[in-house]
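Input (structure):
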């Protein structure tokens, strides 16, 4: 308990020091002309005031909801696709060998290049953002699941087969538990990428969402609005990651500490 409290205190201290330096830079001559600093980096008081105003008048909730829906759909579809194909490729080496260059080529494509194509295919609604987030999530989960299944302990696998387990039982009692840590490791990373995919898609073309909010502020050189949107986005990602951590702790309770 003490170590957890000390860790939390250190994390809060880092944030407090960063905000204090930011405030000093934008209000004093400690780091140069404060007006210049405030023009390019805003000031923490103004950013905080903008965020409070958004939540007080309720204008932020609609944008948060749109981004949440897009991110959740991208995460679910990408994670399920990555898990299914990761297991399949790991259990079918010949299939993996045939499709290996195509998977690597698809993963090498810049996602920003795909965004306009998805907008053309699916329109400017949520599905173009979901498709972009899917491409980010899928490959992260796929490669981790593939490696996790390949890393199954061979003695454990041999003993399970000796006990007469069929392929379905091996999948449930050996492969899946072995890959679970790899799965959740990839899910932690892909949560952020699902949000990134949604926000980038919104930034390039949409009528709602956090990306749209940031793009609108940037279009009128509202630096305070841009930084406020980024802080809301960071808090949003941290909240989703916190939920993912709780789910992981619940499902992997059998591992112990």
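Output (sequence):
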């Amino acid at each position: 308990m003490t170590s957890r409290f000390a860790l939390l205190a250190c994390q809060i201290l880092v944030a407090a020091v960063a905000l204090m330096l930011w405030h000093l830079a934008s209000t004093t001559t400690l780091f140069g002309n404060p007006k210049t600093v405030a023009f390019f980096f805003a000031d923490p008081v103004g950013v905080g005031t903008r965020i409070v105003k958004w939540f007080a008048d309720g204008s932020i909730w609609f944008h948060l909801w749109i981004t949440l829906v897009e991110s959740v759909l991208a995460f679910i579809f990408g994670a399920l696709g990555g898990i299914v194909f990761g297991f399949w490729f790991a259990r079918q080496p010949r299939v993996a060998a045939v499709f290996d260059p195509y998977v690597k080529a698809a993963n090498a494509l810049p996602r920003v290049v795909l965004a306009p194509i998805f907008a053309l295919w699916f329109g400017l609604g949520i599905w173009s953002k979901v498709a972009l987030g899917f491409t980010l999530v899928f490959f992260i989960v796929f490669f981790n699941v593939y490696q996790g299944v390949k890393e199954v302990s061979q003695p454990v696998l041999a003993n399970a087969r000796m006990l007469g387990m069929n392929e379905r039982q091996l999948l449930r009692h050996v492969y899946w538990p072995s890959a679970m840590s790899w799965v959740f490791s990839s899910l932690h990373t892909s949560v952020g990428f699902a949000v990134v995919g949604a926000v980038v898609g919104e930034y390039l073309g949409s009528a709602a969402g956090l990306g749209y909010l940031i793009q609108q502020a940037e279009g009128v050189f509202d630096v305070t609005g841009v930084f406020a949107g980024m802080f809301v986005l960071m808090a949003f990602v941290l909240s989703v990651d916190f939920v993912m951590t709780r789910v992981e702790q619940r499902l992997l309770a059998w591992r112990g500490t």
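Notes: The mean pLDDT is 81. The CA atoms of residues 57 and 183 lie 40 Å apart.
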